[in-house]
Amino acid sequence: MEINKKEEVYSKVYVKVLNFLSFSPRSRKEVLERIDKYFSKINFPSREKDEIKKDIISNLKKDGYLKESNDRDFSILYIEGLKKSRKPFNSLRISQFLSKKGISKDLINELVRDLDQDSIYESVLKDAQKKLRILKSGDAYSKKRKLISYLYRKGYPYDVVKSVVDTLT
Questions:
Q1: Mean pLDDT of the chain
Q2: How far apart are CA 101 and CA 133, in angstroms?
Q3: What is the spatial distance between Cα 75 and Cα 91, in angstroms, rounded to a whole number?
Q4: What's this model's pTM, rounded to 2 decimal places?
Q5: Is there a contact between 85 and 38 (Cβ–Cβ < 8 Å)?
Q6: How many CA atoms lie within 13 A of 66 on its CB side?
Q7: Residue 1: its pLDDT value, please?
Q8: What mean pLDDT is predicted for residues 73-78?
Q9: What residue segments make up the domains of the chain, in order of their start?
């Protein structure tokens, strides 16, 4: 009877994790946190929970759902999605999001370094044009100063901000 209960818990959680993975790419940290969340709702001895958890993780690895390349794939897809969305983005925003998802600093730095400078420039330009429409009329110097500080606070690199602002004003 004890074994049947373990198998039942195992199969329920495993199916839930597979369902979670089916919607979109996930980082390794997200998957492990979700497994912990599912087990927190189950009333079972902690020793047996740990055994079942280890079995689930090893089977996810064996079946190819939990690979070392998950974090890289997840990060690349996130960045590509940002580029396609036409929303302004910057390296700071990307770094913070990926860090929150448990991606290693080395991988984040590598991917941010590979970002196309033209896409960053376009993103800064979109944000700057949007902000210029909002800024109240005033002297050119104060508009320029406010625009530079706004873009810099958003996390854009100063050299790109400066060139965009010089182009627009």
A1: 84
A2: 34
A3: 13
A4: 0.68
A5: no
A6: 21
A7: 39
A8: 88
A9: 2-62, 70-113, 117-168
Q: 168: burial class by Cβ within 10 Å (0-12, 13-18, 19+)?
A: middle
Q: Over the range 130-142, which residues count as b (16 or more CB within 10 Å of their CB) and which as e?
A: ebeeeeeeeeeee
CA distance 153 to 38: 39
- Neighbour count for residue 64 (Cβ, 10 Å): 8
Tokens of 18: 């597979």
Q: What are phi and psi of 27, to 5 degrees?
A: -80, 160
**What percent of the chain has a predicted confidence (pLDDT) above 90?**
1
Mapping DSSP onto H, E and C, the string for the chain reads CHHHHHHHHHHHHHHHHHHHHHHCCCCHHHHHHHHHHHHHCCCCCHHHHHHHHHHHHHHHHHCCCCCCCHHHHHHHHHHHHHHHHCCCCCHHHHHHHHHHCCCCHHHHHHHHHCCCHHHHHHHHHHHHHHHHHHCCCCCHHHHHHHHHHHHHHCCCCHHHHHHHHHHHC
Per-residue pLDDT band for 94 (boundaries 50, 70, 90) equals confident
Structure tokens at 159: 């050299």
